[in-house]
């Protein structure tokens, strides 16, 4: 059985809600990722900030990324999955909520990785990937 831990990219890192978006962009560049989970002072996940969020919701809207915080962009209920969840659970979570990146937590609720579309494509067969893409992108 393939699990979320098997699918995920390791080394995901939270960024504090109070950190500015320019620092988030720098960290994304350093880590070579397009999204960072956003955590509060107790390291509880509050959402995700993406490179697209920074461009569309901050820069293109005329805001200064050195003055807008990651917490300012967090919207909705954060989603995550247990490292021992199976492939069907992972796909169901991503499809149901039409999300493209899914943080993975261990039994102690620590962030241990992130599952992206690339991870799904690398792990699943072509038919499963096609079905996933159709469901996640339906209506978007």
UniProtKB/TrEMBL annotation:
It holds the Pfam family CBS. Residues 8-66, 73-131 form the CBS domain. Gene3D superfamilies: CBS-domain (3.10.580.10). Keywords: CBS domain. The keyword tRNA processing does not apply. InterPro entries: CBS_dom, CBS_dom_sf, Diverse_CBS-Domain. This is Hypoxic response protein Hrp1.
